[in-house]
Write a structure and sequence with these properties.
The protein is an alpha+beta fold. It has 15 helices and 21 strands. It is globular and about 70 Å long.
Length: 503
């Protein structure tokens, strides 16, 4: 398949729209607000519920958390330091008694308790409850100290406490809304007038950031060139990034990422429950070709959720090679062929870039005898279907993964929705046993050994097809300064960004 041909329509559309915009009356924004173009709109500004990438990244700016991670993926204090009283008893102390919410009220351990107690209450159906369900009891000592008691030992526990802290008074109020944000972070919410526009403000200097949802990648680029938005991060095809690199007024930066893109299977489906079919799909996808022609040069083929440089990542493994002949043989062994294709449905978001990737995968699968029907939906509908198991095939990315507890959340048979994110209903008793053993193991070297074993089993079992770790890139007008990319793709660069004004 000649993927170069996929680049041509984008160039043609870009040229046509450039002419249209040059003749239109669009005006370049001249105020100091920095406008950030988004491919996907945020869904919720409530950290107790937000799980989509855009919401989580914006919430990170609005809310502080007890614990964060350093560049080596090791938990580090954020709001609080901690000490281990014993293997099931952790004491956290707030680091600064002057932390306050945007409404002026001090942040205390009562707010910490209220946030986590709310998540742990099954009546509230928080999607984060599954990963925190090992908490037996939370006990406030005073305004600065709080104890967490666990049902079982887990040395990874501090890394679980990354949920943004919400005021206890807000939680108790009957008027709270997932579109209202009262946090203690570096930014505060200014307004959210529509699903496509959201404005926040840096508390230190009142610098405003407006997030603008522009679904079409080509239109996003044109708005950047016109000055209607100031910066873009990710979600552009490679040829548009190259186009921007040749524009004198645009700065483009690249960084290798850690976000894990995969194809998911519904293992309750009688077809996808067959490993021959999953393996045939894995060998039919030419990942390197997709990376070369559609994705950035810093994108790397993936084997598992964690990158190899993570302390718990899989160090040695061979990815599923592109082998269409083997795919055809596997399918023929169970009665399918080019003349009698297997028929499957593949769900994706309505983002044009994601549809392009899905269409290429559709063509690659057709060449081995798998006829795929693509169904695309707006992000909220698509994500809702995935969370509720309404799919056969889909593709998504896990973003911001730092703590290896993600394996229990995604793979353990007890982590099916709503308890966790085992959305494909994967069940392997050996995987469950290893995950349970990891939780009981205190020695770090033994835990690493078990994580290696776990990932090898999963790679062989194929509950999903690992695709790649997508690169991150920034495209910004030259007036934008101080923004830096990070490997998990968060928006922390907005903490230091500024906009140089024309003289």
């Amino acid at each position: 398949m000649n993927l170069i041909a996929w680049a041509r329509p984008v160039w043609q559309v870009l040229a046509g729209l450039c002419l249209v915009l040059s003749l239109s009356g669009c005006e370049k924004a001249v105020d100091s607000t920095i406008r950030f173009g988004l491919a996907s709109a945020p869904i919720s500004l409530d950290p107790r519920y937000a799980t989509d990438a855009t919401s989580s990244r914006i919430n990170r700016l609005l809310f502080q958390r007890l614990v964060d991670f350093d560049n080596a993926f090791v938990p580090t204090p954020s709001l609080a330091d901690w000490e281990i009283i014993n293997s099931t008893h952790y004491r956290f102390r707030l680091r600064d008694n002057k932390q306050s919410f945007v409404n002026g009220k001090a942040l205390t351990t009562r707010d910490v308790e209220a946030t986590y107690a709310y998540i742990l209450d099954p009546a509230n159906a928080s999607p984060h409850r599954g990963s925190l369900n090992l908490i037996q009891e939370i006990r406030v000592i005073d305004d600065q100290q709080i104890d967490f008691y666990l049902k079982r030992p887990d040395p990874l526990f501090p890394g679980y406490l990354v949920i943004g802290i919400v005021p206890a008074s807000y939680i108790q109020s009957e008027t709270n809304s997932r579109k209202t944000a009262i946090g203690s972070g570096a930014f505060e919410l200014v307004n959210w007038p529509s699903s496509d526009r959201l404005m926040i403000q840096r508390r230190s200097d009142k610098q405003r950031i407006e997030f603008i949802h522009v679904q079409d990648a080509t239109v996003r680029v044109l708005k950047l060139l016109r000055g209607e938005i100031d910066l873009l991060q990710n979600d552009l095809p490679k040829e548009l990034v190259h186009y921007l690199e040749n524009e004198d007024e645009i700065i483009v930066k690249h960084l290798a990422g850690t976000n894990f893109t995969y194809m998911g299977f519904n293992l309750k489906d009688p077809l996808l429950a067959k490993k021959q079919i999953r393996t045939a799909i894995a060998h039919a996808i030419d990942k390197q070709a997709i990376i070369e022609y559609l994705l950035g040069g810093e994108t790397k083929i993936a084997n598992t959720l964690l990158t190899p440089d993570h302390w718990a990542g899989l160090k040695t493994a061979t990815p599923y090679s592109f082998d269409p002949e083997l795919s055809r043989e596997l399918l023929q062994s169970i009665g399918y062929s080019l003349a009698k294709p297997l028929e499957l449905e593949y769900k994706t978001s309505s983002d044009p870039f994601r549809i392009r990737i899905a269409t290429i995968i559709q063509q690659q699968l057709a060449e081995v005898g798998i006829k795929v029907k693509i169904r695309s939906f707006d992000w909220a509908t698509f994500y809702g279907d995935i969370k509720n198991g309404r799919f056969q095939l889909y593709s998504l990315s896990w973003v911001g993964i730092k703590n290896p507890d993600i394996f229990r959340y995604v793979l353990h048979s007890d982590s099916t929705p709503p308890k966790g994110a085992n959305r494909g209903y994967y069940h392997n008793e050996e995987v469950d046993r290893v995950l349970d053993e990891i939780e009981l193991t205190q020695e770090q070297s033994k835990r690493i050994e078990l994580y290696q074993k776990l990932q090898q089993i999963v790679l062989q079992d194929l509950p999903f097809v690992p695709l790649w770790y997508e690169e991150h890139f920034l495209a910004a007008n030259k007036s934008i300064q101080g923004y830096h990319l990070v490997r998990d793709g968060n928006y922390d660069g907005l903490l230091t960004i500024n906009k140089q004004q024309d003289q």
